[in-house]
Design brief:
heterodimer; A: 1481 residues; mainly beta; 7-stranded antiparallel sheet; globular; disordered C terminus; B: alpha+beta; 5-stranded mixed sheet; 4-stranded mixed sheet; 16% strand; lysosome (chain A); lipid-binding (chain A); Beta-propeller_rpt_TECPR (chain A); lipid binding (chain A); cytoplasmic vesicle (chain A)
């Protein structure tokens, strides 16, 4: 729970705040101001001070309030002097605002109030629509006002440019006086009451507040233009009232009640758009101190229906967020909190006294004088009726049919207030603290307190507790279930102990716990170590849990059938527990069963839809079939029990328990579920080659839209409501209770999202627009597509977990704009909608929104207060273990501010505070890669790179220099990314996307089960709005399972299998399609390829999982889910743009991995150009991230490739290819190293790599010597020029001991270089299509292990043994084999080499490979007893060998174990059953 | 950071290697081989010694077989104490394996309870659980459980199924959030030096000043002799499950993690070995 604050004023006019997380009132120390009353909203607090001035206090936040002032400089072309300021008389001012109507000289723009300061000087904005303009920032047009373009044309007669300047609100965390009007007839009298509300009025901009005030003369005033960016508002405007008001109260929506001097209450109607809003809550106090609750208040009937008397006597009440109510007791002037206010019971249960201590309690200097000054205007109130606000002399005249006096309003509530209200007795004894009981005797209820003498100015208990005058809960978010610590007194020490630091509970760090744990381990060691051979006293028996569930039948007719299920747990001989789930069903009177081995289960996914409490069980096989086992339980409890039990069994059989390791891969599904996969702890374990569909995904509690992790266990997430969450280190939560959940670090989490439906109408000549459509029309109430009927009544929250928290309201923030009533017009369904009616429009629609909320629990804590749109954590901070600078974490707030989190470290993953990083425009996305490379995309599509970010200067805030803040920054600190390819301009409309990363489901760690948009549940085809689910993707009836086609590469370094799935079709083994498919990578991809448009073989989607690392952080992930046959559009979409989904081109896929970037761009359209997308490479282990353009622009927009090397050398490439497959690899660390790219058809591109930008230069087809030498960096001149196309290249860099070697493969030749064999020239029989480089870095011993595992080595015979091998059609060749030594010399370092001792001798590879086995993924080499090498292949040898072009018998052998292959003497399979390895003898 | 479930797991899977030998005076038809077994610390002797019984019965004459009982260095072993407790009390300083002598004759009526069948053990076990819950929750939790839950507890212990047992037992370990712990801590303190079998008192986990009681607090209150004086030499070892938790350990945590399956915290105080 984030902490928020309750504001209160005591009788002495001092303002205190009480945090929901704290237990002590804190004094707002400020300039001797004494306040009468305050009214708080979340971001600020307004108050009336004793000098009768209105003050506003804006809380200090990390995000500055900035406002941009703009002025336009206009010039007209003059035949004499060119463009000059001499304008025509009819023209606008030379300096004007954007419309030209207002004269606006630069020096005439003044700060609105003393609370603002200029941030910088005026500067010219050279950015136009997200693109850089010509020098000077001029935009040209034929005449004013007209369409302005960047380019000067022959008919450009006028031009203008924009000057901008920022001002910043400086009076934060202090009471800023609202300037009183100069106009004497304004504000003739001081204000007596003030209320802030309206922050939930839906059609208002973010941060908009309604501030209402009542003056002493009973007039009501409204403060104009109060919003986040203008906290002071602009001016007071008078609002007519039928009587003299005395008090006003404004709810968060449009509810506004005023009480009059005569005692009536008034309700104001028609505030803003008359949106139906939620139900409001009205509490009132009458003159006789009774508390009333108004029933039946809602937006249609803001007056409500009747009053209900509540128990207790109060001086005032205040309704805060979530309809929580605070009051000040009549007699004791103590603060009370209405306990038990929930959505269903808005009136709450009891009043609970808040007894939090005050920091100044000891020094209370309450004097009568200050008391009098506090009450100078309301003396009678303070004395007589408290805040009843009715002067005692007027009471007698009060007609009094309406008893209400003090009215507080709040909303919304999801349930109509038609509940049977009953008076709630306050008999419950106070659970007050001991010392509070002194003046509040136990067992006393409030009504009995009323018998005490009233109206004493100085109650005799003044020394014991504070006397309060006013309270405002408008900024205090108390959830119904929150437990507050306000109600018991604590010492300060205790309070500080309660502030637990995030992931570590005291119990876990305590020395005693460590000791116990250690002793237990020792005990086990002592008592068991030497006696393991003893017989166990208790034989492990089978344990069976049975139950009745429903099962979604696998075959027709698909329906739920009742089944008996039994879970059998047993212990195998090796002590490993395993379990089998049996599902018994009846078919044709015959009893049958299916079973699932729980050690094969890859994911257990709860599928919550309206009808069933069901869950899906995925196994690799089931994932392939897209048909998980779906089971449904009768009750939610039942389902959780089963889920928890199955989960436990799965974890046990996988030996996963406890919190996820820092290396864990995190993902979220499209439903917001969070899954974690644990890389195998054993670096060399074969499990590390798990394809994603075989990874075990374990669910975490909570609900997130984005999850981001780094390699040190720092995990952040963002909810659908933009709340930022940080992982606490627990596990379980949600539906996982009991043993499946950790005992601590589980907190309540909530999330809010919107459900949209559309109201459609058709124009009728007679009646106008009616809700009667043509027979062919869509439903009059439908979803966005129109295919599904969605009425207000029938639309339910997405699942049972969600509950409505608002009523339906018209959504005005629809893309395309709406009219006053929210309608959008079009000529017909479905067409382009626009926000105003034209002659040609015959249909219209409007969007209704309803918010729903989910409350769950999970290991997440909210990071208040700023809502985030995007977050990025540096993948790894080398050398910063334990100490050193914190972990860099950047984020973009939902307002577009770029933020840097300070103080993030392993022990405090939440960090301490936000550092605001100034920007010139709102940003959409940010990404930080290795070496503190920060990239961001602005909302208008421009990309920015931020230089000079370092661990010590996390955000590199330049201060002081004015110029640095302004336009210069555009050129220097944040360079807009120049479009690739040396272009300095881009065709108009090419916008960069709105995200830096296009992760489909916003997977950062790695893809999750049901990757991306895949629906988790079969038979649940509805994509969620805003969820980037392709509207077509739902066609597949079965859910696509966990992470199809993604390959997981274990924990730390993992092998790369370059080229493996990149074989072009022509390279596949002819006539053996199946095998080819298998070989070409995970079967899914092949399938994917199989669906490519006919006639365009190149457009086969070649996806390639290729991370160097699986870094938990970045690894790679697949932005687009791959619904079979529907590859598409999800990729580049960002959630929240469902409108553009269908406009996306269907054929982009990209991946990113760490260490290099791979983009496969295939388009059937011939015009593909690249445009910036960002990527980053972090020292070979980071990740790449890519952003693509806005959906509708994409058909014409290609991408540029960007990356940078470890030392910051950034490079970028672009390519103009009709059928483009681009792959770019970026290598560090030497800046001199080139980038290489390979175009379709083998053209080779070299990018120079320097700090900053590189450019792509096309190399000739068939690499020229010069190009190659550049590519190779240190290629000795004069070496033979290879002929043929450059098709593949491998770079391996020197590890500390290992050699540098690289291999460059050409179509017909290959160069292999390593230090020992420079210039060695080995013809290659391979035809490879990709260039790739992997990198390791000198002097980074940590990487060595990775280097080894990363190596994709070519196996060849040593030269000593070089004999030509006849290969048939591909050129003959031998391959230099530097790998053995590379492996040998790289120390065992974590690679778990099986025979590390032997590998050192492995200088030679003996034997021949029949000329065929040319490339093997090694993950280790081994020396057999006979001194021969073994090379262990990567995951599926079939893939490995299939990637060979040659008619290699080995490839057969590998796919048809046991080896009956003709080359059995050369090859045998070590683990034939798993195709895991082969060795060569 | 390891989770506390690891502690539960370690506690549960504690094993004592034991060597059973037949009492030399027992008459056998042929020589009885010793029998070696890993005994679960948290279980009961008669519950896990079926194999031992069978093994020795094979060499015995049928008419000599009566109720089996066990003895260690002259002390008859009470089957209704958890095995780990017996071991810690009697044999913790001796070398492993633990040598237990098996008797079939001359049942020590005054020292041992009869154990004719496993139902007796179950009854004993369940009564312990109920007694503990009476202290913890005024028996509310155990009474709300169904019969099958009770059965699952017992079967979990009998079959050495950690998950099965804890799936139910965790409910017994819960306490209301607004309180800091149980009403009273169910514990038993065993001393070898006194005649009294064990000490059992009402003891709250939380002190009046809201501070959590520690193990040291308990011992000072209940068994002051066990706690070494400030300056004095440590005379006694305080053992739970064969380990010596530091006295600062909060009692509530100990209770939740180091209890035996019968829900009691069995604390042994044994004299410090003079070495």
């Amino acid at each position: 729970m984030p902490s928020s604050e309750l504001w209160a004023v005591d009788l002495f006019g001092r303002v205190f705040t009480l945090s929901t997380a704290g237990q002590q009132w804190e004094l707002c120390r400020d300039a001797q101001l004494e306040f009468k009353r305050v009214s708080a909203a979340a971001p600020c607090c307004w108050g009336i001070a004793c000098d009768n001035q209105v003050y506003v206090r804006v809380g200090a936040s990390d995000v500055p309030i900035r406002c941009r002032e703009e002025a336009y400089e206009n010039q007209r072309w003059n035949p004499m002097g060119g463009f000059c300021e001499a304008l025509l008389p009819s023209d606008r001012w030379p300096w004007s605002d954007v419309s030209g109507l207002q004269h606006r000289p630069l020096d005439g723009v003044a700060l609105p109030s003393p609370h603002w300061e200029w941030e910088s000087d005026w500067y010219v904005d050279e950015n136009f629509g997200g693109e850089p303009t010509e020098k000077g920032g001029w935009t040209y047009a034929i005449d004013f006002p007209h369409t302005y373009t960047r380019d000067k044309k022959w008919n450009s007669c006028v031009r203008r440019r924009r000057w901008t300047r920022y001002r910043r609100y400086k009076s934060r965390d202090t009471w800023a006086k609202i300037p009183s009007e100069d106009d004497p007839q304004q504000l003739p009298d001081p204000f007596s009451d003030l209320s802030v509300g309206g922050w939930e009025i839906t059609d208002e901009p973010v941060g908009r507040l309604s501030v209402w005030a009542v003056s002493l003369q009973g007039k009501v005033w409204y403060r104009e233009d109060v919003s986040h960016s203008n906290p002071e508002g602009s001016s007071w405007s008078l609002v007519d009232t039928p009587g003299e008001a005395v008090q006003i109260s404004c709810g968060p929506h449009d509810l506004l009640w005023v009480s009059l001097w005569e005692g009536q209450a008034l309700v104001r109607e028609g505030i803003n758009r008359n949106n139906p809003k939620g139900v409001g809550v009205v509490w009132a106090i009458t003159k006789d101190r009774k508390v009333w609750f108004r029933r039946g208040v809602n937006s249609h009937n803001p007056c409500g229906t009747s009053w209900i008397e509540m128990v207790g006597e109060m001086m005032m009440v205040n309704v805060g967020l979530n309809d929580q109510v605070w009051g000040i007791g009549w007699t004791d002037r103590a603060l009370y909190f209405r306990h038990g206010v929930t959505q269903s019971e808005l009136s709450g249960k009891t009043w609970k006294a808040i007894v939090a201590g005050r920091e100044c309690d000891g020094s209370r200097a309450g004097s009568l004088s200050s008391l009098l000054s506090a009450g100078c205007f309301f003396g009678d109130e303070v004395r007589g009726g408290g805040e009843s606000r009715v002067p005692s002399d007027s009471e007698a005249e009060r007609p009094g049919p309406d008893p209400e006096r003090d009215v507080e309003v709040a909303g919304p509530a999801s349930t109509p207030a038609e509940l049977p209200w009953t008076n709630i007795d306050l008999k419950e004894p106070k659970k007050g603290p001991r010392h509070a009981a002194a003046d509040f005797p136990e067992g006393t209820n409030l009504s009995s307190l009323a018998l005490l003498p009233l109206g004493l100015e100085e109650p005799d208990s003044a020394d014991c507790h504070a006397l309060w005058a006013w309270v405002s809960g408008g900024g205090c978010a108390v959830e119904a279930h929150t437990t507050l610590k306000w109600f018991t007194a604590h010492s300060g020490l205790r309070a500080s102990m309660q502030m637990l630091s995030l992931p570590i509970t005291p119990a876990q760090t305590a020395a005693w716990r460590k000791q116990i744990f250690q002793q237990l381990t020792e005990r086990t060691q002592r008592e068991l170590e030497n006696f393991r051979h003893y017989e166990q006293a208790v034989e492990q028996s089978v344990w069976v849990k049975t139950g009745a569930l429903q099962w979604w039948c696998d075959w027709k007719p698909h329906k739920w059938v009742d089944v008996r299920v039994a879970l059998e747990q047993f212990t195998g001989h090796d002590g490993v527990r395993d379990s089998i789930l049996f599902i018994y069903y009846m078919i044709h009177e015959e009893k049958k069963y299916i079973h699932v081995f729980l050690n094969e289960v890859t994911a257990l996914v709860p599928v919550l839809n309206e009808a069933k409490h069901s869950f899906a069980v995925y196994t690799p096989e089931r994932t392939r079939q897209r048909w998980p086992v779906r089971l449904a339980a009768a009750t939610e409890q039942d389902m959780s029990d089963w889920l928890a039990l199955l989960n436990l069994c799965c974890c046990e059989s996988r030996r996963v328990h406890g919190r996820p390791s820092p290396q864990a891969i995190w993902s979220v599904t499209c439903k917001g579920d969070i899954f974690v996969s644990e890389p195998s702890p054993d670096l060399e374990a074969p499990e590390r080659w798990l394809p994603c569909d075989q990874m075990f995904w374990r669910q975490m509690g909570g609900h997130l839209r984005v999850v981001e992790a780094n390699s040190r266990g720092v995990v952040w997430g963002i909810g659908y409501d933009h709340t930022a969450w940080v992982y606490t280190g627990g596990y379980g939560g949600g539906c996982f209770q009991g043993l499946a959940s950790s005992t601590s670090n589980i907190y309540t989490q909530s999330d809010v999202k919107c459900v949209y439906i559309y109201e459609n109408q058709r124009w009728n000549p007679v009646t106008g627009y009616t809700s009667r459509g043509l027979p062919t029309d869509r439903y009059m109430w439908s979803d966005a597509t129109g295919l599904q009927e969605c009425t207000k009544a029938s639309t339910k929250p997405p699942s049972l977990q969600w509950a409505w928290v608002s009523d339906w309201f018209v959504d005005f923030s629809v893309p395309g704009g709406t009219d006053q009533e929210g309608w959008q017009y079009a000529s017909d369904f479905p067409a382009l909608y626009h926000g105003h009616k034209t002659m040609k429009d015959f249909v219209r629609r409007r969007r209704w929104t309803r918010k729903c909320k989910l409350v769950t629990s999970g290991p997440w804590l909210e990071v208040a207060p700023i809502a985030l749109g995007d977050v990025s954590i540096i993948p790894e901070t080398p050398g910063a273990h334990g100490s050193g600078p914190g972990i860099a974490l950047w984020a973009v707030s939902d307002k577009g501010d770029v933020l840097c989190r300070l103080g993030v470290c392993e022990l405090n993953p939440a960090g301490s505070s936000w550092l605001h990083v100034g920007t010139d425009q709102p940003f959409a996305s940010v990404s930080i890669g290795g070496c503190y490379q920060v990239w961001a995309v602005a909302r208008d599509g421009s990309a920015f790179y931020r230089g000079s970010v370092s661990p010590s200067k996390p955000a590199e805030t330049e201060t002081g220099v004015r110029g640095a803040h302004s336009g210069v920054r555009l050129g220097r600190e944040r360079e807009p990314v120049v479009p690739p390819g040396g272009h300095t301009q881009l065709p108009a409309g090419h916008q960069l996307g709105t995200r830096v990363q296009q992760r489909a489901p916003r997977v950062r760690g790695a893809p999750g089960p049901g990757l991306g948009h895949r629906q988790q549940s079969p038979g649940e085809p509805q994509p969620e709005p805003g969820n980037c689910v392709s509207p077509h993707g739902c066609a597949a009836p079965g859910a696509q399972g966990a992470g199809l086609g993604l390959w997981h590469r274990g924990g730390l370094g993992s092998p790369v299998r370059p080229g493996q799935c990149h074989q072009g079709p022509q390279e596949l083994i002819p006539g053996d399609g199946r095998q080819a498919q298998r070989g070409a990578g995970p079967p899914q991809w092949a399938l994917e390829g199989g669906r490519c448009p006919a006639g365009d073989p190149q457009s086969r989607l070649l996806l390639r999982p290729l991370p160097l690392t699986w870094s938990r952080t970045g690894a790679w992930s697949l932005p687009g889910a791959l619904p079979l046959g529907k590859r598409a559009h999800e990729g580049p979409l960002s959630p929240g743009h469902p409108q553009t989904a269908s406009a996306l081109p269907p054929k982009e896929k990209w991946l990113w991995g760490s260490g290099w970037l791979c983009l496969d761009l295939i388009s059937s359209q011939s015009k593909i150009r690249k445009r910036g997308f960002l990527s980053k490479v972090k020292e070979g282990v980071g990740r790449l991230e890519i952003s693509a353009g806005e959906g509708r622009l994409l058909p014409r927009v290609g991408r540029a490739l960007l990356g940078w090397s470890e030392d910051g050398g950034a490079a970028r490439g672009c390519e103009k290819l009709s059928k483009c497959r681009v792959r770019v690899t970026v290598v560090g660390p030497q800046p001199a190293l080139p980038l290489m790219g390979l175009g379709a058809g083998g053209s080779f591109y070299i990018g120079s790599c320097r700090r900053g930008w590189g450019g792509w230069r096309p190399a000739e087809r068939g690499l020229e010597a010069s190009a190659r030498s550049r590519a190779l960096g240190r290629h000795p001149p004069g070496s033979p020029t290879p002929s043929g196309q450059l098709l593949s290249c491998f770079f391996f860099f020197k590890s500390e001991k290992g050699p540098i070697w690289c291999s460059l493969k050409l179509a017909s030749h290959s160069r292999t270089r390593c230090p020992g064999v420079i210039g060695a020239h080995v013809p290659s029989p391979l035809i490879l299509r990709w260039i790739e480089l992997t990198a390791s870095f000198p002097g980074v011993p940590v990487r060595r292990a990775r280097l080894c595992t990363v190596l994709w080595c070519s196996v060849c015979r040593p030269e000593a043994d070089s004999k030509e091998v006849s290969l048939g059609s591909p050129p003959e060749g031998h391959w230099r084999e530097p790998v053995a030594s590379a492996f040998a010399s790289s120390p065992g370092g974590g690679t778990g080499r099986r025979e590390s001792g032997g590998s050192a001798q492995a200088k030679q590879v003996k034997g021949r490979v029949g000329g065929a086995l040319l490339s093997v993924y090694t993950r280790g080499c081994q020396v057999s007893p006979s001194g021969h090498h073994r090379f262990f292949c990567g995951s599926a040898l079939s893939s490995c060998c299939d990637s060979l072009v040659s008619p290699c018998p080995l490839s057969r052998a590998t796919v048809s174990p046991p080896c009956g292959a003709p080359t059995a003497d050369l090859l045998s399979l070590t683990e034939p059953s798993r195709f895991l390895g082969c060795f060569i003898q | 950071m390891t989770d506390d479930k690891d502690v539960l797991r370690d506690v549960w899977f504690g094993r004592i290697p034991t060597c059973f030998t037949l009492y030399q005076d027992e008459i056998t038809e042929r020589e009885a081989e010793p029998y070696y077994l890993l005994l679960p610390r948290v279980s009961y002797l008669t519950l896990v010694t079926d194999k031992v019984k069978k093994h020795f019965e094979k060499v015995m004459r049928q008419e000599d077989i009566s109720e089996i009982w066990f003895e260690y260095e002259g002390t008859p072993l009470k089957w209704h104490y958890p095995i780990g407790l017996l071991f810690d009390l009697l044999a913790s300083s001796s070398a492993l394996p633990w040598n237990i002598t098996v008797h079939f004759k001359s049942f020590p009526e005054k020292d041992l309870l009869h154990c004719p069948s496993k139902d007796v053990i179950e009854a004993h076990f369940m009564s312990c659980v109920k007694e503990a819950d009476a202290l913890k929750h005024k028996s509310q939790v155990i009474n709300e459980m169904q019969k099958k839950d009770h059965k699952q507890l017992w079967m979990g212990l009998q079959n050495d199924r950690f998950d099965q047992f804890w799936a139910i037992n965790r409910k017994l370990m819960e306490y209301p959030a607004e309180e800091n712990g149980f009403r009273y801590i169910p514990f038993r303190i065993y001393q070898t030096t006194t005649e009294r079998p064990f000490i059992r008192q009402l003891f709250r986990p939380v002190a009046t000043d809201d501070q959590l009681h520690t193990l040291g607090d308990l011992l000072k209150e209940v068994c002051p002799s066990a706690v070494a004086p400030e300056d004095g030499e440590k005379k006694n070892q305080v053992r739970i499950h064969g380990i010596e938790p530091v006295l600062e350990t909060p009692l509530q945590w100990l209770r939740e993690h180091l209890s035996h399956p019968d829900n009691f915290l069995h604390i042994r105080i044994i004299p410090q070995p003079a070495d």
